[in-house]
Amino acid sequence: MAHIILVRHGETEANRLGIYQGKITDHFLNLTGNRQAEAVAKTLKDFQIEKIYSSTSMRAIETAENINDYHEKSIFATGKLLEIDHGLFDGKTLEQVKAKYPKILETWWNHPEKVKFPKGETLKGAHRRVTQFINDVINDMTRKIRSGNDSGSNYLNADEYFGNPASQFQKISAHLKYRRNFNQGNGKRPFNYRRQ
């Protein structure tokens, strides 16, 4: 059975100080963030991890590298996993944003789906970008399962791989289902990674 484990990066000074960080502003993990990274790495040390993906932000790469201390895999860093582009909010404190963009901030808190950050992106756009990447990863996993089989057994193998009951066989032909496990944690240090 395959699982996709989503891990949030550890705390940075920007997080602690309430500074918006997205695609532009990048900070390393602080002491708390490094401790969080070590904790999540220990939690995942006995998992059989095949691949590690990260955004290109240093906070995410540090997190991935810390997890990788137990797995020795290549880390694939991609901009497709970056946080939402906060545009002109990026690098600013909450107080600065409140002073300059009070209406946008209020909408962001109450109706985030309606906000496009000035010179940034929408929540829907960020969601589409990340979801497409995750779907590509799932499709890649599915292709590896399918190799060398007839179409009927492909779907049976995929069902078994993704933990679906046999009763779901007919429904899987168009969209292979997958299971997601969610964990939160975080990371540290220099690294080797390959951009996609």
TrEMBL record:
A GO biological process held by the record: negative regulation of glycolytic process
Protein name, UniProt field: Phosphoglycerate mutase family protein
Organism lineage string: Bacteria, Candidatus Azamiibacteriota
Any single GO CC term annotated in Swiss-Prot or TrEMBL for this entry: cytosol
A Pfam family reported for this protein in Swiss-Prot or TrEMBL: His_Phos_1
Keyword rRNA processing part of the UniProt annotation: no
SMART domains in alphabetical order: PGAM (SM00855)
Active site positions, chain numbering: H9, E83
Residues that hold substrate according to the record: R8, H9, G10, E11, T12, E13, A14, N15, R59
InterPro entries referenced in this protein's UniProt entry, alphabetically: His_Pase_superF_clade-1, His_PPase_superfam, PG/BPGM_mutase_AS, Phosphoglycerate_Mutase
GO molecular function, one term: fructose-2,6-bisphosphate 2-phosphatase activity
SUPFAM superfamilies for this protein: Phosphoglycerate mutase-like (SSF53254)
Organism: Candidatus Azambacteria bacterium GW2011_GWF2_46_32
Keywords: Hydrolase
